[in-house]
C-alpha cells in the first residue's frame, strides 16, 4: 500500500488523457488525491479514469479545450462543486508550434500561446482563491529553451519560457499566502516525444546520447512520482524553482 500523503487533496491535471499528464494524474491518485482529469478527448480521459479506478483511486473526467476561457471557468466550478475545493493544479496541456522562424505557421504559434501560458495563467487565477493556505501549482516548461541551437524550436521555446516567467511571478506574489509554484521540464516517452523519435530518428538518437543516463524518462515513475513528492509536505520549502527531469541533460538557470 502506497503512502496516501495526498489524501483529502483535490488536484486538477490538464492534458490528463495521455503521456506525462496521464502519468502525473495516476501518481497523484495513487497517493490519495482526488484527480480532476481535463482534456480535449473524453475517450482518452476515460481511459485514464479507468486506470485510476482499477487501482482504487478517485477521479472525474471533464472535457475541456484549454484555449477556451469559458471551458476553464466551468471546469473549475464543477471541480469545486463536486469535491469541495482545489489544493493542487498541474498545467500540462500544450499545443506545440515547431518549425523555423520563416516556416512556422502563426496560427500554430497562437495556439501554442493560448494552450500554454495563457491557459496556465487563466487556470492559476481561477484556482487561486481555493489554493490559498496550502496550495501547490506545478507548471510544465521545456528544456527546448536551453538548447544551444534553437533552429526550429524558437516558437515552442518562447511559449514555454513564458510559462516559466509566469510561474516565478506566482511564486513571489502568492508565496506569502501559502501557495507554492514550481516548474518542471520533463523528458518522458509521451505520444509527442514518441512521434518525434520515430519521425526524426537521427536527431532523436543524438538527443538521447546527450542524456547522461542514456534514456528517456517514464511518464509515471520518473515524472508523475516526482510531481507527487513536489506536492507533498516534505517539499513545503520548494518554491519558484525550475527543475529538469531529464536524466541530467539540461543545466537550468
From TrEMBL:
Its EC number is 1.1.1.-. Keywords: Oxidoreductase. The keyword Oxidoreductase applies. This is SDR family NAD(P)-dependent oxidoreductase. It holds the Pfam family adh_short_C2. The keyword Oxidoreductase applies. InterPro entries: NAD(P)-bd_dom_sf, SDR_DHRS6-like, SDR_fam. Belongs to the short-chain dehydrogenases/reductases (SDR) family. Gene3D superfamilies: NAD(P)-binding Rossmann-like Domain. It comes from the Bacteria. GO terms for molecular function: oxidoreductase activity.
Amino acid at each position: 500500500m502506497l503512502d496516501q500523503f495526498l489524501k483529502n487533496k483535490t488536484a486538477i491535471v490538464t492534458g490528463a488523457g495521455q503521456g506525462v499528464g496521464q502519468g502525473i494524474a495516476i501518481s497523484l491518485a495513487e497517493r490519495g488525491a482526488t484527480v480532476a482529469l481535463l482534456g480535449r478527448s473524453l475517450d482518452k480521459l476515460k481511459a485514464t479514469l479507468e486506470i485510476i479506478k482499477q487501482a482504487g483511486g478517485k477521479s472525474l473526467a471533464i472535457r475541456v479545450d484549454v484555449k477556451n476561457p469559458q471551458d476553464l471557468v466551468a471546469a473549475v466550478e464543477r471541480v469545486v462543486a463536486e469535491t469541495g475545493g482545489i489544493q493542487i493544479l498541474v498545467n500540462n496541456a500544450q499545443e506545440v508550434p515547431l518549425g523555423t522562424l520563416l516556416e512556422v505557421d502563426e496560427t500554430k504559434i497562437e495556439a501554442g500561446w493560448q494552450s500554454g501560458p495563457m491557459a496556465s495563467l487563466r487556470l492559476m487565477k481561477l484556482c487561486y482563491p481555493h489554493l490559498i493556505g496550502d496550495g501547490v501549482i506545478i507548471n510544465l516548461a521545456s528544456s527546448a529553451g536551453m538548447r544551444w541551437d534553437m533552429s526550429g524550436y524558437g516558437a515552442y521555446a518562447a511559449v514555454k519560457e513564458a510559462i516559466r516567467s509566469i510561474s516565478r511571478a506566482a511564486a513571489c506574489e502568492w508565496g506569502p499566502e501559502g501557495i507554492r509554484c514550481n516548474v518542471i521540464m520533463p523528458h518522458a516517452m509521451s505520444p509527442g516525444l514518441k512521434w518525434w523519435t520515430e519521425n526524426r530518428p537521427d536527431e532523436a538518437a543524438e538527443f538521447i546520447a546527450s542524456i547522461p543516463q542514456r534514456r528517456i524518462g517514464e511518464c509515471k515513475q520518473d515524472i508523475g512520482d516526482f510531481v507527487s513528492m513536489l506536492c507533498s509536505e516534505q517539499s513545503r520549502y520548494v518554491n519558484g524553482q525550475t527543475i529538469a527531469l531529464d536524466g541530467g541533460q539540461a543545466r537550468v538557470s
